[in-house]
Amino acid sequence: MKKRDVLEFATNFYDENQLLELEHAIDYAREKHKGQKRKSGEPYIIHPLHVAYTLIDWEMDIDTVLAGVLHDTVEDTTASLEDIENLFGRDVAFLVDGVTKVSQARAGMRDLSSYLPQTKDNLSKLLIAVGQDVRVIMIKLADRLHNLSTLQHMPKDKQIKIARESLEVFAPMADRLGMGRVRMQIEELGFSYLDPTEYKSLQNLMKKRLGKSTRKLGSVRSEVEMELKKQGITFEINGRVKSIYSLYKKLKKVDGNIDDVYDLMALRVIVEQKEDCYRILGILHGMYQPMIARIKDYIAVPKPNGYQSLHTTVITPNKQIVEFQIRTQEMHDYAERGLAASFHYHEQKSSKDYKKSRKAASLPAELQWITQMQEVASKLREGDEISQEQLNIDLFGNRIFVYSPKGDIYNLPEGALPLDFAYLVHTDIGKHAYSFRVNGNIHAFDKSLQNGDVVEVVTRKSSSPKQAWQELVTTTHARDKLRMQLRKLGLIHSISGAAAIIRDKAARRSRS
Ligand code: MN
To answer: CA-to-CA distance for 221 and 263, rounded, in angstroms?
Structure first.
């Protein structure tokens, strides 16, 4: 990787001024890292250049790319954060600082674990430590990818340590951000170092299996192609092979019997319109016998990380089992690139939106958990009191999707209550909530929402926040907004929580 390679690649994405900045950053980093070598013996600068190249490939904004070039300067060279800020601006310095802090957080997780005694997994701690800007995590992922791809130069024990951390922390992090391709790259590399014997044997097993089925699959594929053409649908079709690590995980679930893994190879159909996805599903089910239990509509109900697709597994007349994944180009793009894809769309707005905004609406629904995480992170940083309860927000647990009557989609943690929804839509909607309708029916304040619910908040100007509502919200966001409103109304501390609940329950009973 040379400076020229990065600059040439960058001309596809950035304007002339930005390219000049990029060149400046590369020259600066090269000067600072001068004399330093990677374990491979190559000059150190090739590492930040690789990281920058990856970030350009993800179509990140220029500040993130600059920070990628500079990401190791503050930690490993004489450069100071002030230098970076003076030369490249506050935003870039902010990102470099974030990346440096992750390294420090990883080294000294101890301070954070005192804040987060109940959080066992490093993942949450790491994310909370850096949560102030998602772009920091993207830089870390690009950094990790390059370090993994040069792992052969490390001593064995280091290899194992880095491989394990990659599988336990970085791959789930990429998954949580919807970055399917990066997750897979990290998993394959990490697993190949963590358990090389198992990796090779699964690779061989896969090869043998695929050899047998590729030809049969080919005939299914051309049969389907012919039918779809006949029906006048514009589409692309290709085969996707299961990754070794996901085969490994799957085999553990089915007691090691590879015959129970139906999606070693799947056919992926990509179309232009959402409607075409359902049409193709219908056509496939007309041609072959579907396995009913394996039909998945992730379009209507996306996976928690925002993944959308239709999945179906069919049995052909000659008993071949084939999985199909059907999605639009946009869904495909998201499945592969996740947050990076949506970052691109949002980038048009000021990047400050990303950093500072407390508005859940500034991120797509499926990624609103990031905002919630950031709220906790900034409190930790400002030294605010964090209650045990607030830390219990389960960032990595299950999420549900609910809809407004207009069809807008909102992402909440499992077990969320109607008021959580109301506050997520808008603080004022929460404030004036009077009652709720879920799927058209009256719904109690203390009854949790389910995935796919359509939730309508009935508001009254005269309705205002009650103390007892504190027991009727589960998200940090709703709780914070509610507390602020209660404080304004002078309602906090004036009456004990328990008394308030009783009073409020009685009030509600008499109302309905
Ligand atoms: Mn690095």
So the answer is: 15
Tell me how far the alpha carbon of residue 134 lies from the centroid of ligand 1, in angstroms.
Answer: 17
Cα of 66 to ligand 1 centre, how many Å? 13
Question: Rounded to whole angstroms, how far apart are CA atoms 194 and 260?
Answer: 25
32: CA distance to ligand 1 center in Å? 14
Q: Which two tokens stand for residue 399?
A: 């999420």
Q: How far is the CA of 72 from the centre of ligand 1 (A)?
A: 5
Distance 498 CA to ligand 1 centre (A): 52
Condensed to tens digits (0 to 9), the pLDDT of residues 242-266 reads 999 999 999 998 888 888 888 888 9
Catalytic residue list contains 76:
yes
What is the CA(141)–ligand 1 centre distance, in A? 10
CB 338 within 8 A of CB 344: no
The per-residue pLDDT of the chain, averaged, comes to 82
**Active-site position among 5, 75, 111, 121:** 75
CA 133 to chain centre: 13
> Residue 246, class by beta-carbon neighbours within 10 Å (0-12 exposed, 13-18 middle, 19+ buried)?
middle
The question of whether 225 is a catalytic residue gets the answer: no
Distance (Å) from CA 47 to ligand 1 centroid: 7
Rounded distance between C-alpha atoms, residue 459 and residue 429, angstroms: 7
Residue 116 has pLDDT above 60, yes or no: no
**Active-site entry in 57, 59, 76, 165:** 76
- Interior angle at CA 2, CA 103 and CA 188, nearest 5: 55
> What's the pTM value of the predicted model, to 2 decimals?
0.68
Q: How far apart are the C-alpha atoms of 214 and 93, rounded to whole Å?
A: 51
Give me the CATH code for the 352-511 domain, please: 3.10.20.30
DSSP string, 272-299: SSHHHHHHHHHHHHHHSEE-GGG-EETT
Residue 438 Cα distances to 229, 299, 301, 397, 416, angstroms = 42, 21, 17, 23, 13
Tally Cβ neighbours within 10 Å of residue 507.
Answer: 12
Read off the tokens for 285.
């089910």
Helix (H) or strand (E) holding 411: strand 409-413
Domain ranges of the chain: 3-193, 197-330, 352-511
- CATH no., domain 3-193: 1.10.3210.10
pLDDT band at 462 (very low <50, low <70, confident <90, very high): very high
- Please report which confidence band the pLDDT of residue 215 belongs to, taking 50, 70 and 90 as the band edges: confident
| pLDDT tens figures, 277-307 | 999 999 999 999 999 989 999 998 888 778 8
- Going from the Cα of 95 to the center of ligand 1, the distance in angstroms, rounded, reads 13
- Which phi and psi angles does 241 have, rounded to 5°? -100, 135
For the domain made up of 197-330, give the CATH fold. Answer: Beta Polymerase; domain 2 (3.30.460)
**Residue tagged 């996901």 (tokens):** 246
Contact of 4 with 19, CB cutoff 8 Å: no
